[in-house]
Amino acid sequence: MSQLATFIEEKRQNKPILSMTHVVYGYPSVEESLSWMERLMQEGVDFIEVQFPFSDPVADGPSIVAACHKALEQKLDVETCLSQLGKLAKNFPESRIVLMSYLNPMYRFGLDKLAKRAAEENILGLILPDLPIEQSATYQAACKANGIDPVWLVTPVTPPDRLAMLASQASGFLYCVARSGVTGHSVHEGKAKQTSLDDYLAQIKQHANAPMGVGFGLRERDQIEQLIGKADIAILGSALLDAYNQGGQEAGIKLIKDLFQ
Amino acid sequence: MQSENGFYGQYGGSYIPEILYSSQQQILHAFEEAKNDPEFLAELNKQWQQFSGRPTPLTFCANLTEHFGGAQIYLKREDLNHSGAHKMNNVIGQGLLVKRMGKKRVIAETGAGQHGIATALVAARLGLECTIYMGAKDIERQYPNVFWMKQLGATVVPVTTGAQTLRDALDEALRDWSSSHEESHYLIGTSCGCAPFPEMVAYFQSVIGNEVREQSVAQFGQFPDRLYACVGGGSNACGLFLPFLDDKEVEMIGVEAGGKGLELGEHSIRLSHNLGQPGIAQGFATMFLQDNAGQLQETHSIAAGLDYVGVSPIIAHLAETGRIKMTYAMDDDVIAACTLLLKKEGIIPALESSHALAGAFKDAPNLPKDSKIVINLSGRGDKDIFNVAKAVEDETFPQFLTDYLASYPTTQNKGDKA
Ligand SMILES: Cc1ncc(COP(=O)(O)O)c(C=O)c1O
């Protein structure tokens, strides 16, 4: 079994659901984002999903888009980011780091190099939402060679046969997008169709051997409680960023405690 | 040009978030079916003729030809389409496809506003809801078009992220589509984006080149020796060029926006001069203007419609294989070309199209007198009145604007009078 899946399985022995918190690398500054990650790990979150910013993050809503654009006012560098994350990973062995970005900056860095360097820095999973599985042969081979997991996404509108295919390919964990649309509160939200989350998760479970993470639009305790027994990880993105924007690290930590304790 | 699974060489493909997978597949299948359905094609032709005014003429320019003393210059008059640009060809096609798929809303992004207007017109005619995303900066530059979109019943959403231009509008349209794909179609205005959009838009625009084939033979007994088109996203260029791809004797020249200079941020040159780099963003692989870290960069052109960071994967591929030649025209040369056409031929060209003119005017004097060149006049220049007035430093225009503003019944002026 993959390192990531093993870690999740072990942690799940003592916890009904694990927490994955999202941080934009470099927002509002590189130093502050690293300090925020460190704080989250001190507080015992199980995962940090670190987003390496891209100029055109099309799967994200306004909070994350704004943070990425702000972060890009500085020169950001994938190599530096990876070694900084490596240090954190070493200092907090109870948590894991997953790197998320869009294809272009990672493609420029080199997908082979990315997989290798990520593995060296103890990053166990990679999320690239604009890379469809059909175009991913090189990337998958690089991940496999380095023992790290490419994380695939499924959504409420993924057709059943495709869902079965994606779920059966998942190794570290499967990212189950909770609703149609982009991340976070968004001007487009009203247009998104709501599906029955329970049915959707049950359907995925039929095909997935890997653990399941659920994200997009989570911001209330009820939502997290509803996932217990149906998923392994609850992923907190824009809601945490919004709290952080309003009241800094303290507000962010309070939200996590309200949701997970 | 047919793709291989959405790819043209190394460019193209479909790099979209998983949430859009089924909608993308739906469009793929709907388009495949539609283009093989005689009824759809008949309706398309009818709308092209009756709504947009096709076929557009091929106009010989005797004065310009004499002026340069070289090649014989012809213009393909896409400016005479309803709404004043080639954008209409594609919008009618996709609009009919939307009806066929049973969707009730269209989303579009627009730079110059030409595609926005064309989309709003067709949405009104076909009874579709319409939302147009436009960079806040482009809204300032092209307000008259925004005004008409609103009058046509479209919702125009200013996009204030990033550089507030076309690329940001495109990102925002993609985000809307991610949330609304079940009832909405993303009506892309150029031959970019995920498969099958590049192919589909090029297919609908190919009516341009198909007409030129017939018209050139009828008017001067042969195919043109050279074709010129401006390249923003690349749809008018695809439309003119693709029907001639196999006619090896026909040379094709695409003209990009040189803007103010060759520094990053001053131009929109992706293919000529090796200024773009291969990348994958906004749903597809192509040559993008980006830095070494893979972040897309700001672009500039005096013509808002050419101010795009990527380019059609079809054009990128044909440029790579050498079938089409790419060049660029600087803002100043573009204004000069625009002015020359006005004075010599009594035609008002769009600034986008004036890039094609500038590219052709550079070559024309050096070509044999019996050679024939066709320049695609992709749009008319009415929309550019403010920018052209500024560029030619017309002295009376600012006074006109001041006086007009003073006579305008704004709340403030009303207050002043009270
Ligand atoms: C008149 C005109 N010509 C050309 C273009 C460039 O687009 P494309 O390269 O897709 O033809 C535009 C885009 O808005 C336009 O309005």
Describe the overall structure.
- The complex is a heterodimer of chains A (261) and B (418).
- In chain A, 47% of the residues lie in helices and 15% in strands.
- With 261 residues, chain A is of the alpha/beta class.
- In chain A, helix 6 (111-120) packs parallel to helix 7.
- The radius of gyration of chain A is 17 Å and the shape is globular.
- The two termini of chain A are 29 Å apart.
- The mean pLDDT of chain A is 94.
- Chain B is an alpha/beta fold.
- In chain B, the strands form four sheets. Chain B has a six-stranded mixed beta sheet, with helices on both faces.
- In chain B, helix 2 (38-52) packs across helix 4, helix 4 (87-101) runs parallel beside helix 5 and helix 13 (331-345) crosses helix 14.
- The A-B interface holds A 54-62, 65-66, 69, 72, 75-78, 102-109, 129-132, 134-135, 152-155, 157-159, 162, 166, 177, 180-182, 186, 188-189, 191-193 and B 13-19, 21-22, 161-162, 167, 171, 174-176, 178-184, 277, 279-283, 288, 290, 292-297.
Distance between the termini of chain B: 64 Å
Helix and strand succession of chain A? Answer: HEHEHHEHHEHEEHEHEHEH
Percent of residues of chain A in beta strands? 5-15%
Strand content of chain B: 15-25%
* Order of adjacent strands in the largest pleated sheet of chain A: 5-4-3-2-1-9-8-7-6
* Amount of helix of chain A: 40-55%
> Which radius of gyration of chain B do the C-alpha atoms yield?
21 Å
Largest sheet of chain A: 9 strands, parallel
Could you state the oligomeric state of the chains shown? heterodimer
Using CB atoms under 8 Å apart, which protein chain pair has the greatest interface? A-B, 50 and 37 residues
Distance between the termini of chain A: 29 Å
What is the molecular shape of chain A? globular
Q: Compute the number of helices of chain B.
A: 17
- Average pLDDT of chain B works out at 95
The percent range for helix content of chain B is: 40-55%
Determine Rg of chain A (CA atoms, Å). 17 Å
Q: What structural category characterises the helix and strand content of chain A?
A: alpha/beta
**How many strand segments of chain B?**
14
